[in-house]
């Protein structure tokens, strides 16, 4: 596969990133060396199809966008063949990576949904394991994407829903069903968070009310103590006056005698 073909198809896909083009050229060369035309033919990946796939893989590995719909048209194969072929090439070229919820959140610009999505997937996984003995790879894009989708919907964050679904390479009905199941867990988590927040708020209000009540009692005690002290002071003044008057009267009496 020539670099000219890569550039020609990239123009049709409106890919202008030098990084993507360079990576795609590298992948097509690796494909020629590691796989060969016979293996590609056996996979029904002929003509421009492998080049389109290399461009998509290059875009994915460099974090760039790729027009999957237009790419599918240019590949000359149906959606199922394309999806299976893409996975095969990804494996042959040692590009298989487990994309995470964090990766997807950054890619789709919805990082505020990361925490809820991760907890949603964990909750779904825990329930699945408790009800089924089936071994399931929850690190697959299918689960990562649907958990993020559910979290974004519940948090009312807008993203490219179709593009996120395309990452899973599964039927739309399966995807929608899995998202619906994830949403149930997301809702429960949000409800639990709300209850805990209300408890914390109530606890804080109780503390404030207790503090104000204690403060009122303290002020009242201080006021009473002040009043009592005032009464004692008044008595002492009165006592001194009486004693002084008595002493003066006695002195006058003695002087008169």
Automatic annotation (TrEMBL):
GO CC annotation: nuclear origin of replication recognition complex
Cross-referenced CDD domains: Orc6_mid (cd11583)
Listed GO MF terms: DNA binding
Subcellular location: Nucleus
Record keywords, A-Z: DNA replication, DNA-binding, Isopeptide bond, Nucleus, Phosphoprotein, Ubl conjugation
GO biological process: DNA replication initiation
Annotated ranges, domain ORC6 first cyclin-like: 7-96
Domain ORC6 second cyclin-like: 99-183
Quaternary assembly: Component of ORC, a complex composed of at least 6 subunits: ORC1, ORC2, ORC3, ORC4, ORC5 and ORC6. ORC is regulated in a cell-cycle dependent manner. It is sequentially assembled at the exit from anaphase of mitosis and disassembled as cells enter S phase. Interacts with DBF4.
Family, similarity comment: Belongs to the ORC6 family.
Official protein name in the record: Origin recognition complex subunit 6
Species the sequence originates in: Magallana gigas (Pacific oyster)
Classification of source organism: Eukaryota, Metazoa, Spiralia, Lophotrochozoa, Mollusca
